[in-house]
Design goal:
mainly alpha; 10 helices; globular; mitochondrion inner membrane; respiratory chain; NADH_DH_su2_C; NAD; transport
Amino acid sequence: TLLYMIPQTATTSMLIFGLISALLGGWMGLNQTQTRKLMAFSSIAHMGWLMIALTISPNLTTLTLLTYLIMTSTTFLIMALTESKTMLDLSTTHACYPTLMVLLMLSTMSLGGLPPLAGFFPKWLILKELSHLEMPLMATTMALSTLPSLYFYIRVTYTSMLTSPPITTQAEYKWRLHTNPPTYTTTLASMTLLLLPLTPTLLGST
């Protein structure tokens, strides 16, 4: 397949493009206030990790792609259910959707690659393989490129969980109705948070 033919192409070019993509995705997402743009630049940064993985192992690339799709699907579903389009929307949503906001916080932390969440092990495996290939400078630069992305993921977490607007209404019913999230949202969220112990099994089956 095409995925397994890519490692036969110019490895140096793929590594350079992957590094540039990871750096640009992280830095350009720093000052964004709309969640759609934030997730778009997050995708650009993760595409850089995928390009790096393509030069190393197709199996590792498949594992990284599947993990990224699960994490991103969870985050987008929660934002769609809570109708959060901007960072300001996130700050006013916690009172109505506390459980979904906790899941959003954990999903964004998983996208940032924090252990022991599922997003940690693809990046860890890629950095380990880069070290084995005697490319410590590339591994260090890729690890540092995650810091800007991690910053705006933490900003999403801070806005959604640790800030609350003043509530002055005395109405009996809240202005926003509660919704029951679909079952697949809970399933994807569980996979986003708990896939790390299954890393050896998943890596051996890809």
